[in-house]
Amino acid sequence: MGWTEELQAAIDYLENGLTKGYSVEEAAKRAHISVFHFQRLFSVLTGMSVGDYVRKRRLTLAGQELAFHNARVLDTALKYGYETPEAFAKAFKRQHGLPPSEVKGAPAGLTVYNRLVISVLLKGADPMKVRMEEKEAFSIVGVKRTFSCENNEQQREIPKMWAEVHQNGMNDELVSLNNGVVKGVLGVCRALDAQAKTIEYWIAAAHDTADTPKHLERLTLAPATYAIFEVHGPMPHAMQDMWNRIYSEWFPSNPYRPAGAAELEVYPLEDAMKEDYYSEIWIPIVPKA
């Protein structure tokens, strides 16, 4: 089964769970990738989290049942996973702009989210520069935080962490400590807890000596084969665009999967807002089964 078919199998599973219940872990298993990478892939491809998609689809179907099938509000609320009519009514009005009790008379006012169907588009004409490198284990030192992936919280909180590191002088200290195999300041992301849907994010530098300042922490990254993607352009848009291309173009058309280990964004010591700024994305990979 190919990448497209595996993703469609995961989406079909989510659709079947709109009334029966679902788990992100099982959806990721259908796609043959980790929970963290499934959530990231889903967000890149759809612009919403898995939870957002399920909620919007449930409220879409609930609205259609109330509008066209004389369903009772209480029964519909319970069917689509809401414990109380009040919680259902609040979510329903947020999406549709009117309470469920008024839908029968105004079905045209519903905001509808259609079922996702994976389709193949002709993409990839613009070249991507990528190289494969095997790296032995190496250590990084820096600061770390744990973020929830619920509702894409990490996408809002990680930029705040970077802003704080630049303001308090930590970025300059990491530059001075950078004597390891990777040159530049690193953003390092690794899955932490699939059940809790959390990630651990580091702002760090490769550091190959044993001394670690007391206010910093150390992490040793295991040996890995990395796909290293060149990124050209100012931050943050160039980096975000490349992540999108990696998951929507490169992985579907190449015989590799993310290995599930820590992924790196490498920021060389230059003006990151320059039009020709050069940076890199390092993703540990393994062959597709």
Question: What is this entry, summarized?
Answer:
The protein has 289 residues and is of the alpha+beta class. The chain contains 9 helices and 9 strands.
Give a written overview of the molecule:
With 289 residues, the chain is of the alpha+beta class. The protein folds into two domains: 3-109, Orthogonal Bundle (Arc Repressor Mutant, subunit A), CATH 1.10.10; 130-287, Alpha-Beta Barrel (Multidrug-efflux Transporter 1 Regulator Bmrr, Chain A). The chain has helices spanning 3-20, 24-31, 35-46, 50-68, 73-79, 85-96, 153-167, 170-177, 237-250; strands at 130-135, 138-148, 185-193, 198-206, 217-221, 224-232, 256-258, 263-267, 278-287. Strands 1, 2, 3, 4, 5, 6, 7, 8 and 9 form a nine-stranded antiparallel beta sheet that branches. α2 (24-31) crosses α3 and α5 crosses α6 (85-96). The longest helix is centred in the first third of the chain and has 19 residues, at 50-68. It starts with a helix and ends with a strand. Keywords: DNA-binding, Transcription, Transcription regulation. It comes from Ectobacillus antri. Residues 8-106 form the HTH araC/xylS-type domain. It holds the Pfam family Cass2.
Helix content: 25-40%
| Structural class label | alpha+beta
CATH class of the largest domain: Alpha Beta
Radius of gyration: 22 Å
Pick out the low-confidence regions: none
Number of helices in the DSSP assignment: 9
Question: What gap, in angstroms, lies between the N and C termini?
Answer: 10 Å
Major sheet size, sense and barrel closure:
9 strands, antiparallel
Pfam family, one: Cass2
Domain HTH araC/xylS-type: 8-106
Keywords: DNA-binding, Transcription, Transcription regulation
Protein name: AraC family transcriptional regulator
